[in-house]
Specification:
18 strands, 18% strand, 481 residues, 5-stranded mixed sheet, Spo0b-associated Gtp-binding Protein, Chain: A, 12 helices, alpha/beta, 3 domains, Rossmann fold, 27% helix
Length: 481
């Protein structure tokens, strides 16, 4: 270390904001700074009073403000899921004073853990989903016919309204599996390839037998375990070839739509446990030194896509007052600010009525013209409208042409999905307390052929009438659906 003690003492005093204690140890009551290496310290500057001036960007980072639970909202995730592999069987023989060379008593291996997926209403985002899930493997069998324990099952909890799709493995994962190779092609195929590449006259029959025996032994060792220094004879190797496990069942691709709380599905089944050596006893083989290996499972790649589920959805252009309205009539606390695109993630609130009837209301982020072409993250926002039973258009009544805003919203929804605008509809004319709103209201009523409720979400005016109209239209939509 090429920095002298006075230099370090000055550094300690500057960072701590207090006196230096012996041995350059101090107690700092000031702000805590990140660690810097000696190389970084050398590059710092000194002012005229020989005070150390570290780069401001490395210490005084700008404050990001208060973080909320919606800052890390995710509605799309790709993960890898691997079920647990089965435990290997055991090679064991019973020993006693009366019978020192007893019969085989190796236990079977345990089953690998399954992977389930379950919908949970207490989760609202996919940001808590990990990138990789692997269930526990089954344990190996032991002597005295004691079977191995099964692997513990794993449950992946996702929000209600999640779509689950099975996709192909990424390119890097497929290339890695190809490099490892696979011996499942069969012994005959390997021998056939080598004989095709060489002249039949140049290869002896003995060499072909050696190649065949080597490939067969490699295949057997992949599925069976043998005692140390044990190599089965040719007749027993052929007998084991007949006992090879069948090819694993390939289930159809996973395609789920989790819309009910507590809904649970199996997405990856655990591997089968291997058999112990008692299963290989025959009339000729009384003490087999052979057991079966547990079944290993391949990973499955899944895509999660979250589409919010609510009784009604607030649809409007940016800065129309949707978040203010949601905060006024429900228990939600969305971010509210006087600029467009304040809401970047869907918020869901619950409206509680005096007779204990409840309904859910979703605040969809603001749409722009061309949203069906994915302008302004249009597809990311529009997909949350598909699950709502009732469409609630929030229009700025004090705008220049509120009827034009309503036409844009309907055109974008219909262009995104045909028939989406045919759902029960309620129009909320927000900011009705402003002077320009009164002149626009008459023309707005003539051009919009849907029920219109004028309100002022900021001033909490006509909110009771709006919640009553919402309840009646939601109840009617529920009875029809």
């Amino acid at each position: 270390m090429n920095i002298c003690r006075p230099y370090l003492a000055k550094l300690c005093s500057t960072l701590s904001g207090g006196p230096v204690v012996s041995g350059c140890r101090w107690v700092s009551n000031g702000p805590r700074f990140p660690f810097h290496s000696v190389k970084d310290i050398k590059n710092w500057d000194l002012d005229s009073d020989h005070q150390i001036l570290p780069p401001p960007s490395t210490i005084f980072a700008p404050s990001k403000g208060r973080r909320t639970r919606h800052d890390n909202f995710l509605d799309f995730k790709r993960i890898r899921v691997t079920a647990g592999g089965g435990g290997d069987g055991s090679i064991a023989f019973s020993h006693s004073a009366v019978q020192p060379f007893g019969p085989p008593c190796g236990g079977n291996g345990g089953r690998g853990g399954n992977v389930y997926i379950m919908a949970c209403k207490d989760i609202t985002s996919l940001n808590g989903i990990l990138n990789n899930y692997t269930a526990a493997n089954g344990t190996m069998g032991s002597s005295n016919n004691m079977h191995g324990a099964n692997g513990e099952d794993m449950v992946i909890r996702v929000p209600v309204g999640t779509l689950v799709r099975q996709v192909q493995a990424p390119i890097y994962a497929s290339s890695t599996a190809a490099e490892l190779g696979d011996d499942e092609g069969g012994v005959e195929a390997v021998g056939q390839d080598e004989t095709e590449n060489a002249d039949e006259d140049e290869i002896d029959v003995e060499e072909q037998n050696e190649i065949y025996a080597e490939q067969m032994m490699r295949l057997l060792e992949k599925h069976f375990k043998f005692k140390t220094n044990y190599r089965p004879r040719e007749d027993r190797a052929r007998w084991l070839m007949e006992r090879l496990p069948p090819k694993p069942y390939v289930p159809p691709p996973v395609l789920l739509d989790l819309t009910v709380h507590g809904e649970k599905h199996l997405i990856a089944r655990g591997g089968r446990g291997g058999q112990g050596n008692p299963h290989f006893v025959t009339h000729e083989i009384k003490g087999p030194a052979i057991c079966e290996r547990g079944e290993k499972k391949e990973p499955v790649w899944l895509e999660f896509e979250l589409k919010s589920i609510a009784d009604a959805g607030l649809v409007g252009l940016p800065n129309a007052g949707k978040s203010t309205l949601l905060a006024a009539i429900s228990n939600a606390h969305p971010k509210i600010a006087p600029y467009p695109f304040t809401t970047l993630n869907p918020y869901i609130g619950t409206i509680d009525y005096s007779d204990f009837w409840t309904m859910t209301l979703a605040d969809i982020p603001g749409l722009v013209e061309g949203a069906h072409l994915n302008y302004g993250l249009g597809h990311q926002f529009l997909k949350h409208v598909e699950r709502t039973k009732v469409l609630v258009y929030v229009v700025d009544l004090a705008g220049k042409e509120p009827w034009r805003d309503f036409e844009i919203l309907q055109a974008e929804l219909e262009a995104y999905k045909t028939g989406l605008t045919a759902r029960p509809t309620l129009v909320v004319a927000n900011k009705a307390d402003l002077p320009r709103a009164r002149s626009n209201m008459e023309e707005f009523q003539t051009k919009v052929q849907y029920p219109i409720v004028p309100i002022s979400a900021k001033e909490r005016r006509n909110i009771t009438h709006l919640t009553g109209a919402l309840r009646s239209i939601v109840e009617k939509a529920g009875a029809q659906g």
